Amino acid sequence: MVSFTRKAEPAAEPTISGTDALRMHLRSRIERPSGTSCARIAADICDDFNAAAAKAKARSIADSMLPGGDEIAIKALANSLIGTIDVKTTIITGQRLEQFAYGTINLDPIIKNGLANFLHGGNVIYDAARDLLDSAHRHQPQTLGVAPGPWCHPNPRIAAAADALRDAMATTIRSPLRTPTPSTLPSHAAAKPRPGFA
Q: Angle, to 10 degrees, between the axis of helix 94-101 and the axis of helix 38-65?
């Protein structure tokens, strides 16, 4: 006799935290044969932060130089000032990044966000509140307008006839399909039963 046992439901995959995901991605980047060193990754993250800081500083200087000015003029002035502003801040070193990769230390959420941005090419951000990696692209759904009404023929006489036909069809009760009676069946459908068959 064969006995059947019910298979247990597959367990749901555990959600990996954003910090652990960053550590795994960073280790995989470091440990590749042609991998990038932690110092190089740290320098790139610092460069990204410095570029963002220079852009914000240039915008604030442009706002103060043109109070109440045109937005296009302020952007143009800020873009021309970016090259003159030098921001050099080291927020992370290669050694601290390597310690984070192997779980020795933890990093600030700002640095984790910069690391996620670097490792995923700007497509992922680190959500510190949920400790998860999330998409950087949040598009709000857009309405495409109001749906048009039913089509109406431009000739009023034809439109009136179409409306009358639609009203007549709505009031007509449709009967179900007619079932064939023995008198309407074709002659070959009423074949004699063969012996031994019911």
A: 120
